[in-house]
Amino acid sequence: MSNIQTSAFVKKLAANGMSTSTRHLLTHGRRILTSPSDRPTRTAALASLKKFLSRPVELPLLENEKLWKGLFYSMWFCDRPRPQQRLAADLGELYLSIPSQNFSKFCLAFWIVMAREWMAIDHHRLDKFLLLVRRVVFFQLKRLREEEWNETLLQGFVEALKKCPLSGDAKVSTGIPFHLIDIYADELERMMFEEIQEDEEDEEDEEKRSEIVDRTPLDELIQPFVTLSKEALLKTLREKIKTDLLADERLKKWGIVEEESKKTFTESGDEEDEGEDEDDEESDSEEEWNGFA
Description:
Blueprint: H1 3-15, H2 20-34, H3 39-53, H4 61-76, H5 81-93, H6 100-117, H7 126-146, H8 151-163, H9 175-192, H10 203-215, H11 218-231, H12 235-246, H13 249-253, E1 263-265, E2 271-273
Antiparallel strand pairs: 1-2
Helix pairs in contact: 1-2, 2-3, 2-4, 4-6, 5-7, 6-8, 7-9, 8-11, 9-12, 11-12
């Protein structure tokens, strides 16, 4: 799409019932959209965007969605791997600038936009959006850590997951929860131990890791997946959560699940034998997952 076409797209967003504050935001977003691979322009635009987003002005969910739609297309038009990697990180870092009153809505808006636009992503662009999801999840978790796991922000993050990517809703492409399952333990680990050198393996390092795990509300962070592993209508989704996330050795090491993974959590947080689900597995007739749409 040409710069003229892109400009028209942004103008359409700005004219679509948008408040003055969000029009201001998209003034910066336009610069990101029209020059997504131009590093100096993108850096300046993102700096302005971060500054504006940091203002303690509450934005309704709809305006957060419109903002994320513009940012979605900045990634869409970004070519070449390195600019894509930088842009994904830059967009994820926006979660460190958002005021507390907008954090939950900014989280939910991201997932809503991804769910709406996912089916339109062609295989040439898929990798960069998978990377964007990974970076956004990391920085959402990092913001929660920096806020010392503020209960309100934590609940907002969890509710955003439950309302959209982990809702089990048939309208959400299975590619989104499947990818989230694949990356979640990785990003939890990276967030928790970000400041510990990988080559540190002494007893002091192990003590640091243990302390970090103890003060991280891992049960709450994992609970949306546990709930979906019980309630998802799609059998392959239930099984993927159990085998690819809940059976992850890191979760066992962190004390979230038992070493013998024949048990898992109920929605209330209690443990339940997985065998209870076996009786109804033969009657499941859902279609198997056939890859990213």
